[in-house]
């Protein structure tokens, strides 16, 4: 049975602060060195964590930023989350604040996974992307420290037109460092990321097929962010294999609620506003950090009420409201396209995914024999 995310989210991302010592070219938050006025106080942060602990099932909580290590009360908040038995992922910046002592303290405070960023297999390209020399080496050192103390790690990678080929060298490094999950984010042009180039729809398709093939043999799990049509690629590839070996139909894994063959973490149906929710440093609630439409603020309204009842979130959970070819697509219930990218490129969060080359037969028939023009 497909999971129902209409009541509670599967993953909650909390942007703990706007402050960050780095200036990455693609930063969604356009983070700066100082925190914003009105960031959630320690008490407000604890109240938020208290609420999350009442959800059934309890969500995974991702503490992000900016750089969450820049919050003076970060370890107090982590300790509070630990007393509530919340599972916490933590995404620090690879700044001078990310010391071995800090990583040890994070584990002691209950962090269950450390998420770091690598956007290239070479220091030169990664450091240029991150806007500061030495970030590649600091990230590698942090991975090694985390491995020494038994703290699981994941790597987040942002894919643009400039680094899409270089990152194909990353898997060997991830294997070497014992990473458990590679989260591959396909650029959405928001924040400072507006100046960077995305893949074309056809480059996107080729890259997703490469990623699928990698997932079959890698020691780490693979997931995508803002590339929901990866699920369609997986289903198509599994259907081909099922026909070849007369195994169970690919659709069976769909109804189980997840993909196998290295794809357990690509939970079907989790998308912006549907299983995922983002809370900004000032308490604004959005479907995603890359879809900065505000549905409410946790300072005035409970997260549960915003998530369950706001028009924006309810729209995003109704796949029948999707427009263009996404609305006709036979994969819309497991995919639905990136609502963040649709909004960033068209101004309409329910528009068709702009970077998908697949044309659904139902849409092709409706459009006429010549078919629609697909942007690429």
TrEMBL record:
**Cofactor dependence:** [4Fe-4S] cluster
What Gene Ontology molecular function terms does this protein carry?
4 iron, 4 sulfur cluster binding; catalytic activity; metal ion binding
SMART domains reported in the protein's UniProt record: Elp3
Please report a single Pfam family linked to this protein.
Answer: Radical_SAM
Q: Where's the Radical SAM core domain?
A: 6-217
> Which InterPro entries does the UniProt entry name for this protein?
4Fe4S-binding_SPASM_dom (IPR023885), Aldolase_TIM (IPR013785), Elp3/MiaA/NifB-like_rSAM (IPR006638), PqqE-like (IPR017200), Radical_SAM_PqqE_MftC-like (IPR050377), rSAM (IPR007197), rSAM_sf (IPR058240)
Q: Which CDD domains match?
A: Radical_SAM, SPASM_MftC-like
Kindly state which keywords UniProt assigns to this record, in alphabetical order: 4Fe-4S, Iron, Iron-sulfur, Metal-binding, S-adenosyl-L-methionine
Keyword set includes Iron: yes
According to UniProt, the name of this protein is Radical SAM protein
